[in-house]
Design goal:
Low-confidence stretches: none
Structural class: mainly alpha
Mean pLDDT: 97
Number of domains: 1
Largest sheet: none
Distance between the termini: 20 Å
Shape: globular
Number of strands: 0
Number of helices: 6
Length: about 120
């Protein structure tokens, strides 16, 4: 039962970043412009897409799960502080808290590992 729950946790944590990464591809110019308006170099967008899509696929497959979870946790904290730290905007503060909660989930996954239903388990990690 616990392994099924760990698999479900991986899927639930991963899906938001898979969808977000794919939407950044289709809305590349707009996303790049938004990043630049927030003081983040638009040239970093390919790395963001790679992290979101690649990291989420790694979690879904349970491949290098701990590293993917750690990278996505760091990304969540960075994105929260850069894009959502606006105390006078309730919606942005909710987004900030969502990102921090996701980071917490990723850190738990880093500690827990991928579980039995994963490529990591098949590889003996």
């Amino acid at each position: 039962m616990n392994n099924a729950i760990v698999l479900l946790a991986r899927l639930l944590l991963a899906h938001i970043f898979l969808l977000a990464g794919l939407s950044k591809i289709s809305g590349y110019a707009a996303t790049q412009g938004y990043m630049e308006s927030m003081g983040v170099p638009g040239a970093l967008l390919p790395l963001v897409i790679l992290l979101e899509v690649g990291g989420s696929l790694a979690l879904i497959l349970g491949f290098m799960t701990r590293w993917a979870a750690l990278a996505l946790a760091g990304f969540c904290v960075a994105a929260a502080l850069i894009f959502h730290l606006k105390p006078d905007d309730q919606m942005q503060m909710i987004m900030l808290m969502k990102n921090l909660a996701l980071a917490g989930g990723f850190l738990l996954l880093y500690v827990q590992g991928a579980g039995a239903y994963s490529l990591d388990a098949k590889r003996g990690h």
